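Deliverable D2.4 — example input (structure tokens):
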């Protein structure tokens, strides 16, 4: 059974940033706020498909879920 830490919800629909850049900003915000490094980001299936490396961004695992809305990113920790 997975245990979950706190997740940070991040929304960015900027046309000027790539999905990788948006996730990187969300990771930075998580670290700044919670003083720990996340190990997972949950994204929309289309957002994950647009990534150059759909497995990892900055060493953080990327997982897609059908219920996620595009341009929304949940950054957090799963044990």
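Example output (designed residues):
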């Amino acid at each position: 059974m997975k245990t979950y830490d706190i997740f940070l919800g991040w929304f960015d629909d900027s046309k000027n940033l790539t999905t990788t850049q948006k996730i990187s900003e969300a990771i930075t915000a998580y670290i700044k706020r919670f003083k720990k490094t996340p190990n997972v980001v949950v994204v929309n299936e289309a957002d994950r498909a647009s990534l150059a490396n759909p497995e990892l961004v900055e060493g953080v695992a990327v997982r897609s879920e059908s219920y996620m809305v595009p341009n929304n990113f949940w950054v957090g920790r799963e044990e």
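The radius of gyration is 12 Å.
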